[in-house]
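Hey, I was hoping to borrow your eyes for a little while. I've been staring at a protein lately and its backbone has me curious. You're getting the sequence in one-letter code plus the fold written as tokens. Would you mind checking whether the tokens look sensible for this chain? Here's the protein in full, and shout if anything looks odd to you:
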Amino acid sequence: MKMNYLELATDVVKKAINKGADESEVYLELGTEFQVRTRKGEIEILKQAQKRGLGLRVFVNNKLGFFYTSDFTPEIIDTQIEKTLLLAKHSTSDEFYGLPEKDLASQKKLSDLKIYDPQIETIDTKTKIELAKRAEESAFSESPNVKNSEGANFISEKTSVILVNSKSEPISYDSTFFHLSCEPVAEHGNEKRIGRFWDSKRFFADLDSPEDIGKKSAQRAERMLGAKKVRSQKVPAILENLISNRFLHALASAVNGDNVYKKSSFLASMLDKKIGFDLVTLIDDGTIPKRLGSKPFDDEGVLTRRKKIIDKGVLSCFLYDTYTAKKAKLASTGNASREYDEIPQIGTLNFYIENGKTPLEEMVKEIKSGLFVTDLMGFGINWITGDFSQMVEGIWIENGELTYPVDEVTLAGTLFDFLSKIEQVGNDLDFRSPLACPSLKIGELVIGGK
């Protein structure tokens, strides 16, 4: 008999209340995952799995108890409810513990964000394998220098979320995810370069073609053959849109309300102050149809919405879940994030710098001598101090033209410098992940070379 998961979640919440919880909540996650990885026309990985899990939070006298399980046997769940309540009663009291107030998504009409593609039910395994193979074939046919490959991946996921708590009506949503990537290796003599290109979308039909992904990944590999070193200097730089969003990871941590409350962010004292160039507007928005970071409510049931984090260079807000918002005497921004086996933390939704007006070609033409950055390596960005030092590679710009590839270069500075020295924002914003950014022209960065 098919299990009624909404009924299960509702029953667990009621049992926890009946057994002594002041508040209780179930976050239930269901889904399927598929992955195929091909390399040189052969299948290396082929897996399909189902995922399901239930997480229960209970609050007793401002004390928290939590458990999670993928075993939905009634006896197991009943035993765990008892243990979770006992754990809560012996935990440390915290006045900020508790569920969101009744202003939840369940009290309002949920928007259809078009984040579920029913076509996921009809795409067969053969088609998925062929997509990965076609991407690799396209990469090999693009250039005779592409002689090897790290492989091509196709991934599809279907996820259902059910949220039930003791203060409101049950809410739920379904979502899908599709991903196709290719990593060919270009060779010349003893030199080898890996290129990567990918696409990720909510709807299968919106994915770039495998031929396009293979072609662009091969071009990215080949253009780095013959890379040279450059001397240490200060020059303008352009960060390509595909990699400029790496800096957004650090900014996401810097505007995380918990880090701000703990003074573990370089932006902790900068609210309502100018921290960047006038053209920089940073948005967090869970309401954009079809985007990978969109969902109707966050993982505590609070409606998602659009927030300007940086508004024309001015820091205008931080991100909060319910717990941290209570500590800061503010309201949740709808940014609670978790899996079923975790308690909520603060996360981002669609986190992006707004599109600008300047074409990439125009940015390049205006630089006499500088660097077009096409890849960053490592995790050298510190959101606590704002300092960064990143190994990068790219294409050297000379007299307004892309000339030769460059590697073994370090970019160093502070995120304050980075934000304040942005001179131009590209018109090439591209949502291939929930964190997205157009190409950015930085007036001056310190390059460490030979």
